[in-house]
Design a protein that fits this description.
41% of the residues lie in helices and 15% in strands. It has 183 residues and is of the alpha/beta class. A five-stranded parallel beta sheet has the order 2-3-1-4-5, sandwiched between helices. The radius of gyration is 16 Å and the shape is globular. The structure holds adenosine-5'-diphosphate. Residues 12, 14-21, 83, 107, 117, 119, 153, 156-158, 161 line the site of adenosine-5'-diphosphate.
Length: 183
């Protein structure tokens, strides 16, 4: 059967768990021979979006570029998994409207939890004023109003969150039902 492409768009604060869940989902899908590609915000910024900063306009441009690439992949049958803070609602909504099989996944954890994880040491720098425009500290994050999935990473394990995404894909007919047997 030909694989159906889709865009799994993971949005949320820095340290919420987007990269971790994206990698986990990709790994599970690859095990089952699905073609996937992870577009990670941090990595994309060094290539596709090199030179863009963190103003609203630059952040929106970053999201549009990643969305454009994700759509190219998706329409060729690949499951594109984007892990991008993407703090502004409107540009996410635009992507939802202009692409097919766009699944918005809100990777959610309390700011205090993200900050205590401080995976990349960025919150400490933001609090010290060494990084300007830091989402959640000195820049806005607009929560999705009606996301397709909410992964609450301060309440569930990585494995549970990954399974939540896989189950959703299954219920949407985007992947086969194998996953239902797993939990
Ligand atoms: P982001 O990509 O959103 O900036 P990361 O994935 O880099 O976040 O970091 C998230 C951190 O939170 C990792 O250290 C990860 O192990 C931890 N974590 C704890 N629980 C979860 C969960 N349920 N889902 C994702 N990450 C989790």
């Amino acid at each position: 059967m030909k694989q159906r492409g889709s865009i799994l768009w993971l949005t949320g604060l820095s340290g919420a768990g987007k990269t971790t869940i994206a990698k986990g989902v990709a790994q599970e899908l690859q095990k089952r021979n699905y073609l996937t590609e992870v577009l990670d915000g941090d990595i994309v910024r060094t290539y596709l979006s090199q030179g863009l900063g963190f103003s609203k306009q630059d952040r929106d441009t970053n999201v549009q570029r990643i969305g454009f690439v994700a759509n190219l992949l998706s329409r060729n049958g690949i499951i594109a998994i984007a892990a991008v803070i993407s703090p502004y609602r409107q540009v996410r909504e635009e992507l939802k409207q202009t692409t097919t099989n766009f699944i918005e996944i809100y990777v959610q954890a309390a700011l205090a939890v993200c900050e205590s994880r401080d995976v990349k040491g960025l919150y400490a720098k933001a609090r010290a004023g060494q990084i300007k425009h830091f989402t959640g500290i000195s820049d806005p994050y607009e929560e999705p109003i009606n996301p397709d999935i909410i992964c609450q990473t301060d309440q569930f394990t990585v494995e549970q969150c990954v399974n939540q995404v896989l189950h959703y894909l299954e219920t949407q007919g985007l992947i086969s039902t194998d996953f239902l047997d797993r939990s």
